[in-house]
Specification:
The chain is an all-beta fold. The protein has one domain (2-127): Immunoglobulin-like. It contains no helices and 9 strands. The strands form 2 sheets. Strands 4, 5, 6, 8 and 9 form a 5-stranded antiparallel sheet that branches. The chain has a 4-stranded antiparallel sheet with strand order 1-2-3-7, with no helix packed on it.
């Protein structure tokens, strides 16, 4: 598990290869990632946007921008956590992702970004 803390927001992430959803002969490798976001501030925040950079080992690069995560723009009260999982397909058996979330301080209405730590996506057989 990777963990990063910026502006008193913790981001924890893990990733796992899903062999049952992958078709290696067709260069389709599917990974699921699990994220927990914790608000350690003394004020409430709302996650409004996400940005991802996704890189395959074959040089394929993608950017993904959108509102919230998994169809939600959660509000996190002080000390609260929000967890979700999502997936990513790659065209190679090794890749990585990183990015940032945009939050709004619900007291001042100021927007701020929190980096999502880079995490690797590797087919387990490649680790041997």
């Amino acid at each position: 598990m990777l963990k990063e803390n910026t502006q008193s927001i913790d981001i924890q992430v893990t990733a796992r290869y899903l062999a049952e959803s992958s078709i290696p002969k067709e260069n389709h490798y599917f990974f699921v990632y699990f994220i927990t976001i914790t608000n350690n501030n003394s004020f409430s925040v709302q996650l409004t946007k996400r940005h991802w950079d996704i890189i395959d080992s074959n040089g394929e690069k993608r950017k993904v921008d959108g509102e919230g995560v998994v169809g939600e723009t959660p509000i996190l009260e002080p000390g609260e956590c929000f967890s979700y999982n999502s997936g990513c397909n790659l065209q190679s058996d090794i890749g990585f992702m990183y990015g940032h979330y945009s939050f709004v301080n619900l007291i001042t209405n100021e927007e701020f970004n929190v980096p999502i730590p880079r995490f690797d996506m590797v087919v387990p057989a490649k680790l041997n």
